[in-house]
Structure formats: structure tokens, C-alpha cells
Amino acid sequence: MFNADLLPAIRVALQVLLGITSLLLTLLILLHKGRGGGLSDMFGGGMTSNLSSSGVAERNLNRITVIIGVVWAVVIVILGLITRFTN
Known about the structure:
- α1 (7-31) runs antiparallel to α3.
- The chain has one domain.
- The protein is elongated and about 50 Å long.
- Helices cover 69% and strands 0% of the residues.
- The protein is built from 3 helices and no strands.
- With 87 residues, the protein is mainly alpha-helical.
- The mean pLDDT is 83.
């Protein structure tokens, strides 16, 4: 399908992408507003008013988090396949 000489470069690029998406996913998850009743109440999240409607910023944050999560999962699967079939 492609040149075997490119495989190490592809693997390194995917590992870098995995690191970046891991950090972004962690930061994006921490940016989400706590829903209450859990650990978020322990750190002062219970003091905020819990509005039922989600704002535009929160919806966009949800979309970006899902997209980054899907990219993260796909990169892990591709790296696993490369590792499995090159050894």
C-alpha cells in the first residue's frame, strides 16, 4: 500500500498526534462545567446555579471534546494496528 520506509515516520507522527490530543482532551474535559452531586461539589462546584439550558459556548465545547475524543481513539487504533502487523 505504501513504502515501508515511511512507516517509522508515520508512527512518530501518530505518536505526536496522540500526545497532543491526549493533552487537549484532558484540558477540554476539565473545562466542562460540573453537573453537581459528584466530585465537582467537593471543590466548590455546588455553589453555582445549575441552569438547565446549555449556552453556545458549552455546546461548542462539547462538540470539540467529542471530535478530539474520536481523533484520539482513531489514532490509538491505527497505532495498535501498525504495531500488530509490523512485528
